[in-house]
Amino acid sequence: MSKKLIKDNYKKKIKLINVYNRRYYRDNKSDVTDAEYDVLKKEILSLENKYPYLVSKESIKNTIGYKPSKNFKKAIHRVPMLSLANAFDEEDLVNFEKKILNFLSQKNDTQISYTAEPKIDGISASLSYKSGKLVMGLSRGDGKEGEDITSNLITIKDIPKIILSKDFPEEIDIRGEVFIQNSDFSNLREKFANPRNAASGSLRQKNPEDTKKIPLKFIAYTFGFVKGLKIKTQFEYLDKLSEWGFKTNPLNKLISGVKNLIKNYDEVEKNRSDLDFDIDGIVYKVNEFELQKRLGNVANAPRWAIAHKFSSNKAISKILDIDIQIGRTGALTPVAKIKSVNIGGVLVSNATLHNEDEINRKDIRVGDTVTVERAGDVIPHILSVDFNKRPKNSIKFIFPNKCPSCGAKTIKEFNFITKKNDAVRRCSSEGYFCEKISIEKLKHFVSKDAFNIDGFGKKIVESFYKLNLIKFPQDIFNLNYNIIEKLDGWGKLSVENLRYSINEKKNISLDRFIYSMGIRHIGLENAKLLAKYFGSFSKFKDLSNNKYKELLNIDGIGETQVNSIKIFFSNKTNIKVLNELEKVLTVKDVSTKKNRGVLINKTFLITGKLDGISRAEVKSMIEENSGTTVSSVSKKLNYLIVGDKPTKNKIENAKKLKIEIINQNQFLKMLNKTN
Ligand code: IVH
Description:
The chain is α+β, with helices and mostly antiparallel strands. The protein is 34% helix and 23% strand. A hairpin with a 2-residue loop joins β15 (332-343) and β16.
């Protein structure tokens, strides 16, 4: 196709999506289904990726500029609005409870009470009250910063504007869900695809008068920042909310024991269609605030709560082919290419088959008629095969024992922690030897949370790789732009843009850098922990053999992560990549703006079993109060915390070095947390 034809075709699509955007955001009308809109958006994005010269101010990334968010002021949530981990079955719930009991160092038969709150599928909002007066209302935003949508929120009748109750806290951010009842939605069907879109669209109206016309409801369920709250449990809090004039979910319950949670779940799910609002699961929260506080958060979700999702939308389709995708860690993931089918408004043409075991267990074959399930944002998967419809000539799928990309043997690793072979088969080649692994590593390197190079999308990585322009991350910073300018689809301007975006990213923070290396088990959160620990690129790079163990002292880093870091550093190509990148990049040191907690500059080591509290919890307490934990007795150690059955050697060495030896209570006293 000629450049002109491509451009015309692109412009036509942009024009169309602009019409849809305008209709949706400005006029609240929807001319197309979500699926049709997504297909168009995908087509535009893929054109932009394939022909970077098309990218301009009109680019889709900029024109979702009907995004009303630009109309609202931003404000920080004093306490972040977290998200929730998901559970799909009983096993997930058993694990959730196990982790809680382990963290709290409680016996397996300890009964924990949970509130079970049906999870309304709406839009969350945070309402700040001062001396009983509503002073501000924020959307969730990215959890840290929301949009100030006060003027729209105050049009909602369910939201009290003044609360006179004596026991209402002096200051509190009340959080809950804004939604539309199904009966009210029936009148809005023409404008919005589903009740959730309707709630979100109307909350974001520029003119509050428009919001007022839409019957939004509000149900309260939690709080953020608070001063002067005198109760001790979530269930009491839900009670208080109604006393103060908020609506709460009438189906909220207080339950203990996983079996009872399941019983309640089954009942609610059975009656789900009778409700006048959409729910997509049940949220369980540890009832005692004291326990919630001890459990704290992991990444951006609390350890003390989980969302138990209802089973989702299903559809029947046919497997056209089974593809093996190779991830950046070498994992071979089988993917079923299925006949496109619309599941809950989204057009699905791929379904993950997870791994070899899953294919064997379900005996999934090319040509099979299957039930496909799509739950929330999770990748669709195959639920079951209809064996009656299996073609006569069907043959069993044989999982490749050689990597389809580089031919190396594929292996199932032995996991020393679970003492079992992994279910996932991996390409056994190392570093950048395998083409597919390299391409995936490079895609990860330029991705949003890593180097985030504008205009350097997945398609460009693939084409530059095939053209031998990039093989290793450092090649991105040493590109031959003269060659690129002559490539089909590139011109002076687009090359200039690319050069600019790449140069702009030569300064990078250490956490992003560590994340960009794509070390197995080192995601964004772990990369942040490591960056904070190392402080500088040189310290990270110099991580030599005997220092690995020390990493175990970082709260949140375990043996699995340490092992994987070890493997990364033992690979010569990785070291070369680090050295080459060092030449072209400036990796910023982590600023050591430390909280000045009571344990500042103090180091601790724990030996023996503690009473009613796990090591993980003690470590997180130490870090929260600006102290650090170390792994061995040395002059650097300030306190040895001794529990039951300690290591004698450690005590003797500590005595020799005149290190202060304390017990659990003495430690807690340092934090004013005596039993
Ligand atoms: S508690 C840390 N309680 O679910 C606690 N959330 O995935 C986080 N939601 O953004 C929120 N009903 O929009 C909580 N009873 C409930 C909820 C609920 C619905 C939504 C909320 C949140 C999302 C978390």
